[in-house]
Structure formats: C-alpha cells, structure tokens
Amino acid sequence: MDFLKQKILQESEVLSDHVITLDSILNQQVDPQMIMELGREFAKRFSEVKITKVLTIESSGISLGFATALELGVPLVFARRRKTLVSDPETYSERVPSFTKGIVTDMLVSRKFLQPDDHILLIDDIIANGDAARGLIRIIERSGANLVGVGIAVEKSFQAGARTIREQGIRVESLVTVASLQGGKIRFE
Amino acid sequence: MDFLKQKILQESEVLSDHVITLDSILNQQVDPQMIMELGREFAKRFSEVKITKVLTIESSGISLGFATALELGVPLVFARRRKTLVSDPETYSERVPSFTKGIVTDMLVSRKFLQPDDHILLIDDIIANGDAARGLIRIIERSGANLVGVGIAVEKSFQAGARTIREQGIRVESLVTVASLQGGKIRFE
C-alpha cells in the first residue's frame, strides 16, 4: 500500500496531533481507480472467508465499501447518520459520539438489510477512537448476522479504536497505519 | 434500462402519490454490478463531451457517481449536506429545501475541488422537485466550471425538477422516467 502512503503524504493535511484530513483522497474527492485498488486489496485479504454483504457508514465509507462489494460480488449496505433518534421498529439504531465532528449521531440500518444468515464485512475509511465501528458492530450483533472482519483504509494506531476491536477477538485489516501525527509530521508504522 | 424498471417494480415501495422509496436499490442497499451498468450508461451517453470531474451529493448519489467516474476515468467529488450554514471562505454553500426530508439543508463543496477549467457531469439518483440539483448547478456556476450535463437514474416527470433544468438549456439524461405514482401504481413514461 505504498501508493496510499504516498498519496497521504502528498495530499493530506495534519490539523493537530490527533487529526488528519483526507478530504482530497477519501472524504470529498476520490480517485475511483485508486479506491478500486483498495477494494481489491480488501477482497484479497478476506478471500478465504464467506462474505454475503459489505456494510459501511455514510458518507466517506461508501466509495470504499462500493469498490470492495463490487470486487466481492456482493451487495453494499450503508448505515445512515441522523442527529435525532428515530424510534422505528424496522430499524437498528446506535447512538455514538463522533471524534472528528464533536457531536453525537445516531447510526441507522434498516432491519431488512441485515439478516441472521448474513456474513458481513465492515468497511470504513479511517479509524480513530472507533466509535462508529463499534456502533456498527453492535448493530451487526443485534441482527444476529456474522461479522467476518473489519477493513479500514487508514488506522490511527495512537488512538484506541482498532486495538479495542481486536481485543474483542475481531479481525481488523488496516491498509495503512499512522503511528503518530506529532509536530504535524505523519509517521507510518 | 428495462432491468432498472424491473428492479423498481419488484423492490420499490410507493409511499404516496408523490413519494417512492428506492431503499433497496439506490439508497441504503446497492447492487454494485447493477450500479456499474448505470454508470456505464451515463458514460456512454456523455461520451462525446469532455468531462474532467463527476459531481454528486451525499449519500445516495455516491455509488452512482463513483461508478460513472470510474467508467469515465475522472475523479468523483461529492457535496456534503449540513443542517447549519457554515460560513467558510474555502467552501461553496447553497441552502436548499429537501422534498423527501421536509427540511432545509446546506450543501457544501470545497472550492479547491471545483476549478474554472473543470468540465462537470452532475450525477444523482433521483430527481423530484430538483432543489438539490439546482443547488449544485448554482455551486458549479459560482465556481466558473463548465456544466456539461446532468445524469439522473430515476426522473419523476410529474414533478417539475428535470423540466425546469432542461428549460435552463441544460442537458438532462434520465435512465428511467416515472410518469405517475397515482393509486400506488408505478407508471413509466
């Protein structure tokens, strides 16, 4: 994944010791060819497990989730974010804080899209404290579906998200790991 | 686009004479192979014009925009929605009502992603009153970029959106046109 590291070094912006913006790579502008390469890599890493659906969360996860689902030949489901808790019996919802947005959001997935016989690969663009990923994992658990693993484009290993998920015994595959942003400098692991 | 009509007949839900939900086709769950077919169709219809970027709006437009951008070999940019107006000199914003959501949202695109020498293809999943599309068109105009046309998966021709945009002299290509939802029945044009 050296090309992704290169792209991050060239095009990202370090906003603080904890925050890096990937706007021109993953968040607001995407290069579809590059995203397809990342999707192919996720498909390869999880090629030996049965997967029936890819789950991601709007909006930054959708391109990456789409590319992975296209490579795997399975549907993509994406969770929605809402600022208010909808009480809908047809919908799984989890309230999670957002590290980058500094607000609480509710994540919603219609029940019909997650079935007990599903094998779910969770895909997201970046993991920091892991609140979104853990919320999605709770939703998958509640649906009775099987979580086969988590694929993350950029893991920030100096924050606890990916580690706490691995400690739950869940497989997490990160394409690139950022060990530190200290002093505005990106250090990869 | 008969397969898209079939899919709509099989999997959509008519909620009223004006509202159809495409949750399992375009909005919350997508079939990447089918979306790629739609993207190829847009790329074909606009093959004779120069396009440097595809612009869409989160979240439902992203899969379709991604597929189209992948086929065209250009970057995808997606506008964000916010409930509060961010006053950021680096960002184009337009306030628009949302027909389906019943609320007003602000659409935002970073200025750096739309340049005067860009040729933009606008892609969205569905057009009803066209508020989102017109908001994006105003953003493109303000950026000085050239709008080559608008590609829409599902046009609801009994609402004024697509017509008013065509009346501005802008090319609108819809893959499927729904003429009426009267009595819970989907009638295509």
Features:
homodimer; 189 residues; alpha/beta; 8-stranded mixed beta sheet; two-stranded antiparallel sheet; 11 strands
State the strand order across the main sheet of chain A.
6-7-5-4-8-9-10-11
**Helix-strand pattern of chain A:** HEEHEHEHEEEEHEHEE
Low-confidence segments of chain A: none
| Beta-strand share of residues of chain A | 25-35%
What is the oligomeric state here? Answer: homodimer
Mean pLDDT of chain A: 92
State the helical fraction of chain A: 25-40%
**Would you report the number of β strands of chain A?**
11
Helix count from the secondary structure assignment of chain A: 6
Biggest beta sheet summary of chain A: 8 strands, mixed
Greatest interface and its residue counts?
Answer: A-B, 30 and 30 residues
Task: Write down the overall geometry of chain A.
Answer: globular
Radius of gyration of chain A: 16 Å
Structural class of chain A: alpha/beta
Determine the N-to-C terminus distance of chain A.
12 Å
